[in-house]
Structures are given as structure tokens and as C-alpha cells.
Design a protein that fits this description.
single chain, 193 residues
């Protein structure tokens, strides 16, 4: 009989912890938003951040002529007032429709939903589902898509050291079955001609 109150207290504590995980921890983990205190910047997009029309030069990455590598091109990108605004402008430029002869590695119609950067320098880029549903597939195509975005942010923003892609606000294992997207990825210069 003495052990019964202790067993009840332990059961209440375990039930409380499980309830917290189910109703607070899991929704934060999969909402596409960082846990409180883990990211100093968070911005929902799109909002124009530069009414003055100021531009900067940024390195963006497109499919090379042979279709097996990325090629780096310097283009004008709208100036962002702080690192998160600049990150948003770089990603928006990278995923935008491009004029010929440039070829984007990102499926047409893909939009930027949100972006945030942690104190460690990990950028989380939340893209619309078109990036996966409109993807042509294949190892090379998927690598070019992923690293066009990863390289664009890491090459242009010293505050960003790695990038994780999210789709429709959720972590995904892959876009088309080949590149592991369950963690932030560092730039890959081996893919750039």
C-alpha cells in the first residue's frame, strides 16, 4: 500500500510529460518555426523589404550547359536591410523564373513561404510543395536543385553556414529520393563549374 501513492505520482508526472510532448513539443518541431529562443530571426514571406529600389550584386547558381553542374552568375538582387531580409531576397531571386539562356534548377512555380536563420548560422528555407511535386527526379537534378539554393545563401551571406530545405512548413527526407534533407547542408563547390 505504501508504494501506491508513489506509483500514482510517477504516473501523473509521466502523463504530464507526454502531454507536453504531444501538444507543445511536436507541433513546434513540425510547424516550420524554431523553438522559442533557438533562432534570433524569423520572417514570414513575402513582404517587400526595399521600397528604395537599392540593389546588390549576388552570386546565383544555374544549370550548366551540359546539365551536370551548376554555373555561378553574378546578378542584381534587391537589397535587404538585415541578414534575414537579404536571405529572403537571395532565395527569391534564385527560385525566380530566369531568362534564356539561363536554366533554373528549381521547378517553375516554386515559391518561398518563409525563412529563418539560427544563431549557429543554419538557415531554414520553407518552400512551396511545387519544389517536390514539380521536380523531374534523378540524382543529378535533385543535387542541382538543392545546392543551387544552399550555395546561393552560403556564398552570399557570411551569417549562413548551412541550409535546410523545408517543404510546405515541414521537414522532409528528400525532394525526389536522393539527397538527404533531414539536416542543414553546407555549400558544395564540387558541383560548380
Amino acid at each position: 500500500m505504501r508504494g501506491r501513492p508513489i506509483a500514482i505520482a510517477v504516473a501523473v508526472v509521466i502523463t504530464g510529460l507526454l502531454a507536453w510532448v504531444i501538444f507543445v513539443g511536436v507541433p513546434q518541431r513540425y510547424s516550420g518555426q524554431p523553438a522559442p529562443g533557438s533562432a534570433p530571426y524569423f520572417v514570414s514571406t513575402p513582404t517587400p523589404s526595399n521600397p528604395s529600389g537599392r540593389k546588390i550584386k549576388a552570386r546565383l547558381f544555374y544549370v550548366s550547359g551540359d546539365g551536370t553542374h551548376l554555373t555561378s552568375i553574378e546578378r542584381d538582387v534587391t537589397y535587404g536591410e538585415d541578414p534575414i531580409d537579404q536571405a529572403r531576397e537571395i532565395v527569391a531571386a534564385q527560385i525566380a523564373t530566369v531568362p534564356e539562356p539561363l536554366v533554373s534548377a528549381v521547378p517553375e512555380g516554386t515559391t518561398l513561404r518563409a525563412i529563418f536563420i539560427t544563431e549557429r548560422g543554419d538557415a531554414y528555407v520553407d518552400l512551396s510543395g511545387t519544389i517536390a511535386s514539380g521536380h523531374p527526379g534523378g540524382v543529378t537534378n535533385e543535387m542541382l536543385t538543392v545546392y543551387s539554393i544552399v550555395n546561393a545563401l552560403t556564398a552570399n551571406l557570411p551569417a549562413v553556414t548551412a541550409v535546410q530545405l523545408l517543404v510546405d512548413g515541414k521537414e522532409v527526407e528528400t525532394l525526389a529520393g536522393h539527397v538527404d534533407l533531414r539536416r542543414p547542408l553546407e555549400k558544395n563547390t564540387a558541383l560548380v563549374q
